[in-house]
Amino acid sequence: MDVSSDLKKTPLHALNLSLGARMVPFAGYEMPVQYAAGVMKEHLHTRAAAGLFDVSHMGQVTVRARSGDNADAARALETLVPVDVLGLGEGRQRYALFTNDDGGILDDLMIANRGDHFYVVVNAACKEADFAHMQAKIGDTCELTLHDDRALVALQGPHAESVVAELWADISSMRFMDVRACDLHDADCIVSRSGYTGEDGFEISIPTNLAEAVCRRLLDHPDVLPIGLGARDSLRLEAGLCLYGNDIDTGTTPVEAALEWAMQKVRRKGGERAGGFPGADIILDQLENGTDRRRVGLKPEGRAPVRGGAVLATDAEGEDVVGTVTSGGFGPNADGPVAMGYVTKAASAPGTQLYAGVRGKFLPITVSALPFVKNTFKR
Amino acid sequence: MLKFTEEHEWLKIEAGVATVGITTHAAEQLGDLVFVELPEVGSTFEKGGDAATVESVKAASDVYCPLDGEIVEVNEAIVADPSLVNSDPQGAGWFFKLKLANAADADGLLDEAAYKELVG
């Protein structure tokens, strides 16, 4: 039986296969985990030049106020996220979180103000549930569309700007988190200066029928290599970025996850539009009083990677358990293993020496500041 | 005598001692290795026991002991430089030498032709 037939394919599936991708099931899609170069080279190339990622499995949703006033769409979105959407200027994008009534995280997402509507990008594994959640909560005031007519790619790395400039357009005036319409290769694209690697770069939404042509042009550039999900994961881990389902989920709150920076003052206690999102009581209280546990960076002392699920203890015998690793692996640019996880408040200060359970042994690991590599966003 | 297992290990057997490593196919499937943990010299394993661990950027995998025996030597070079396993899996990237408990056990393993058929 061919189980792969149940998996969805992105508009770049044929291109991925032609590039020698090793395909794996991911969030209901058949996705490239690595290409011919392999995870290590792909990772290092992205930080040295530019990498192209197929992220078409992610959900692209447009949110349009039925009233025709985009501020009404902003107000509607603010009932779902603890984030300042009304204050988000036209052509700007912001990181956000869908929360639930317990203060847990349903998904993390990007929200962009496109002038006459909002454009939202959500995780692949959550997109159907997110869309249903949005329909149920704000469908009366907003027209919502989940776009399967657009591909999404990310071009990441220090050469991303010059590659786009050489091929199509000077977008050097864009700053980190700017969003604009762009005519690339005669394709009507939406370009944001953002990504998931800690590098400068762009995410590019492309009409499905032109996605392969745009990507082939990018890949013809000598600075650009295709990058799979394997390196995407090691890049985001070095950059200290959360993976939904691993590092954040319905069992973690934004404050426990150390994502306070995503919640602007206007939505906090004393702010003009304080609260008004699911779980606000719990989350706003935690913002003032802290939480019993916290997401932290973790640096194993030896060479052995410490993976998600490893138990963290204060002693080398592993008796005094204070937390769990949620993501861990090898950081090619960090040149060693890197991890993140949740620990008790008492164990959360950078420099705290802990021990991680790996194959029956407890190996020394140190709580450390995130990210593991300096980000290079063009702010 | 060169033998293979269905778990993608190779054994080069001389005078009752097998030099053991992972096959080129296995190394390609695992991708770039970043960490290798080897057994201690003098330890004994049964066939199928977890003798070594390899980690790629993405995941950890066990290397099973292909036959009953005692570890008599390990290749520290691959601990210092795990990429040796990727660059020369069936040569300089060997893992350990196993003194076979029963040399005749090797007869049950795959020969090169049978292994090649297995991995296609």
Structural descriptors:
heterodimer; A: about 375 residues; alpha+beta; Gyrase A, domain 2; Elongation Factor Tu (Ef-tu), domain 3; 8 helices; about 20% helix; B: about 120 residues; OB fold (Dihydrolipoamide Acetyltransferase, E2P); six-stranded antiparallel β-sheet; three-stranded antiparallel β-sheet
Explain this structure.
The complex is a heterodimer of chains A (379) and B (120). By secondary structure, chain A is α+β, with helices and mostly antiparallel strands. Among the domains of chain A are: 143 residues, Gyrase A, domain 2, CATH 3.30.1360; 88 residues, Elongation Factor Tu (Ef-tu), domain 3 (Beta Barrel), CATH 2.40.30.110. In chain A, 21% of the residues lie in helices and 33% in strands. The radius of gyration of chain A is 21 Å and the shape is globular. The termini of chain A are far apart. With 120 residues, chain B is an alpha+beta fold. Chain B has one domain: RNA polymerase II/Efflux pump adaptor protein, barrel-sandwich hybrid domain (OB fold (Dihydrolipoamide Acetyltransferase, E2P)). Helices cover 21% and strands 38% of the residues of chain B. Chain B contains four helices and nine strands; from the N terminus they run E-E-E-H-E-E-E-E-E-H-H-E-H. The longest helix of chain B is centred in the last third of the chain and has 8 residues. At the A-B interface, helix 2 and helix 7 of A face strand 4 and strand 6 of B.
